[in-house]
Amino acid sequence: MQALIIGAAGMVGAKLAASLAADPAGITGLALVDVVAPEPPAGGIPATSGTLDLADAAAVAAEVATRPDVIFHLAAIVSGEAEANFEKGYRVNFDGTRNLFEAIRAQPDYRPRVVFTSSIAVFGAPFPDAIGDTFFSQPLTSYGTQKAMGELLLNDYSRRGFLDGVGIRLPTICIRPGAPNKAASGFFSNILREPLAGREAVLPVSEDVRHWHASPRAAVGFLRHAMTMDTGPLGARRCLTMPGLSATVGEQIEALRRVAGDAAAALIRREPDETIARIVAGWPENFDPARALALGFEADPSFEAIIEQHIADELGGTIGPR
To answer: Which residue among the candidates 90, 110, 143, 157 is catalytic per the annotation?
Structure first.
């Protein structure tokens, strides 16, 4: 099978490519594209790298004309940037997604597996104590709206037989390695990643803010499972909320303290930001992902485990200044 990863220069895309290169699970070749050329992973399967702007319908059609068996659609303008730049968010997150699906539809006798990364931002307040599989999708941000529209397209194009879609609503990924991005959720990772490296981190919201999280390892596991799962049980509802961990910021900090000690926790500086607090206030806090669990998706065991994974995967097994 040939696989195409759109958004392969991003953190999750790069980790997915590395995982498939190390353990192909039937994949015989990888095509990696993004707005900047991704770095091909080391491994035993051939990989190509190139650039692609999803808003360029002709370029998308040319890429899809190679007829990959599996397409991972990971590309997106993140939440904070989509809220700040209305036109850019819709051009990439909605128009780009439709360009991709239309390019697939235009290919005769072609029905690839399409794994689409959506978001828990498709849900908007007020929320129940735990959001179940039948809760209404009523987002309160432009990013959430764009992702909800993508989900509807995925359902409809799958129903019509143009593609075989699986939509996975990712929890907020924590701990994200590397430099901070423009996501409004970035502080959830920053308050753990930076202290683990011996650096100060800014906390812009109160410690009682609760959210739904998954590690990078779990996210890659979700994508790999979506690639190979039997989609028959999905029926017409192709999008699933992924399992995760519900934790408050205070609980995150206590997990950091248990793993890395008081000195690491002391590096978190409280600096309220009303804009971020307002965005986060409209986000869901807890889920009952019974449908995804029944279909074989697996969550992280604890926040301590998430922190320990980051130390192992990104810090060479040690913490402190580097």
So the answer is: 143
